[in-house]
């Protein structure tokens, strides 16, 4: 899993703040972010969301980490499951939306720094 963007959301409803690197605190999340868990989205899911803005999750989901590759554990993060589920009332529910596998949540299991990889 290669991190290509990091964002924190200090306040509810904020547009988010992009970071080059972030401090991750075990049991607490990303320093400066309002949530304890870390949200992740694959680049594939992000591109799909751009092309399909009418989907229910597209405008609502805000990822802390945008990654290339699959969602996978590393020494700092443990994927906790909690992957997105589809809403039957979603206008694109019948399509093959990558949000089910391309969006997830993680807990911080070890203090450390994660940086954007260029």
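Sequence proposed for the structure above (118 residues):
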């Amino acid at each position: 899993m290669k991190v290509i963007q990091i964002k924190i959301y200090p306040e509810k409803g904020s547009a988010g703040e992009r970071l080059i690197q972030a401090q991750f605190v075990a049991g607490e999340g990303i320093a400066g972010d309002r949530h304890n868990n870390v949200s992740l989205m694959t680049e594939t899911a992000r591109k799909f969301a751009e092309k399909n803005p009418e989907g229910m999750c597209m405008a609502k989901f805000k990822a802390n980490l945008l990654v290339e590759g699959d969602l996978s554990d590393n020494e700092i993060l443990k994927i906790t499951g909690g992957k997105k589920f589809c809403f039957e009332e979603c206008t694109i529910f019948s399509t093959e939306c990558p949000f089910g596998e391309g969006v997830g949540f993680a807990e911080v299991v070890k203090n450390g720094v994660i940086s954007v990889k260029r």
